[in-house]
Write a structure and sequence with these properties.
The chain is mainly α. It is built from twelve helices and no strands.
Length: 281
Amino acid sequence: MSTAAVTSIAAHEQRLHPLPLRIMHWINAVAIFIMIGSGWKIYNDDVILGWLHFPDAIVIGIWAQYGLQWHFFGMWIFVLNGIAYLTYGIVTGRFRKKLFPITLSELLATINDALRFHLSHDDLTVYNAVQKILYLGVILVGILIVITGLCLWKPVQFSELASLFYNFQTIRVIHFLCMAAIVGFIVVHVSLALLVPQTLIAMVTGGPVVSGVAALALEPAPMPVPASALAPLPEPMPEPETAPAPEPPPAVPPAAAAEPPVEDTPAVESPPPGPTNEPTQ
């Protein structure tokens, strides 16, 4: 393994459950505990099912008013923590990597293994189809219980939203069923965590390191060099020889250039000697 690969693993090393996820998980557990216990106290004050009444030993709040105060306190924790969790899961791509895709063949195979008690939990980094559906389902139920809770809390201010559920009593029933679904999920979730203690330990310690190896596996391999690129390049063609430029004529000195040309003048011939016309004595 090259030094660059080792450096890449160290830089991208991340555990199965990063620290922000673990913090949000345990905050959410406390918020749900508060909301369910206080919600049962509110329910006892105006029951939906006449035969169902929650014992005072498992509810939060001495009176219904105290139960409402605890419920609002847990609600704000649950909502703010839920927004942070959804944002983290979408931005980091965790939902896309862990919860998708879900195929019908995978779902049927997982159900078959579960009915035969052959589900394998050796690899904590991979969720089976049933786990994916349960996690997606509880996320949707959590969103729905917040919406119905807002309609129960402020039915006038959220009247348009409340109108989607027909009437106030329908909103109460849906809110109650969402609570029941979350309680059922918690029972299954905790039971599996006790049956497979590695999952509980992983949510405390972070679990195995997964991202360094994944980053190395996803790192693109170097592109192969084509054979044509390895062939020797052709030698460049020699440049044609050019004739030397003619030398310029010698410069004329300035004095010689200024001297005017000398013209030849014809010589004057003297007459030939002849007899003189002097008188004789």
